[in-house]
Amino acid sequence: MQLGGTALKRLNRTWRRRATLQVGLLLQDVESPFNVGAIVRSGAVMGVDHLYVVGRSASPSTPKAQKLAMGTDRYLQVRGCATVREAVDAAHADGYHVVGLELTDTSAPLHELDLRRDVCIAVGNEARGMSSELIAACDALAYIPQIGKVGSLNVAHAAAIATYELRRQEWAGAQGDPGGIPDPAAGTVP
């Protein structure tokens, strides 16, 4: 039976209570408003706190971005930054460890990094990826392993996978982790 109404709210509240770390996203030159809107929506779903927008990135408030975001940008603190340095400095000032999602010779598989801290995931342009300036400014670099015949993910999908991995690691390492999904029907959801 599908969950709905109160049971769904209880389930979501249970997971939200287990999420204590801050998550941020930094977008550099993500030009498609549809990608920005999708990133905002999945970010709101995963409890992203801050969104730093730099360069030629589309504004989350444009009508095309809003078509996908559906107003969920109100749940994120959005900050437009004039330069990469300003964006990274703002993320650091907010307490984030900045992890760039880019395939380089020093990148590690995302799931192998210990992400159980306040992390801001940085992503770059749909075609060109992150600039060398942003790559150099990141505290760590990661990539999402891929086994198919296509060599890259859409930036919005990559951001969603990365934010989920942050939460997955946090939940897996939580003290008192019940080790399973709460069952609202059985009354095990607070």
Give a quick summary of the entry.
The protein is α/β, with parallel strands linked by helices. Helices cover 36% and strands 17% of the residues. The chain has a single domain, classed as SPOUT methyltransferase, trefoil knot domain (Alpha/beta knot), CATH 3.40.1280.
Textual characterization of the structure:
This protein has helices at 5-18, 33-45, 63-69, 84-93, 132-137, 155-172; strands at residues 23-28, 50-54, 77-81, 97-101, 108-109, 119-123, 140-143. 34% of the residues are buried. Residues 175-186 have low confidence and may be disordered. The chain contains 6 helices and 7 strands; from the N terminus they run H-E-H-E-H-E-H-E-E-E-H-E-H. The chain is globular, with a radius of gyration of 17 Å. The protein has a single domain (22-174), classed as 3-Layer(aba) Sandwich (Alpha/beta knot), CATH 3.40.1280. With 190 residues, the chain is an alpha/beta fold.
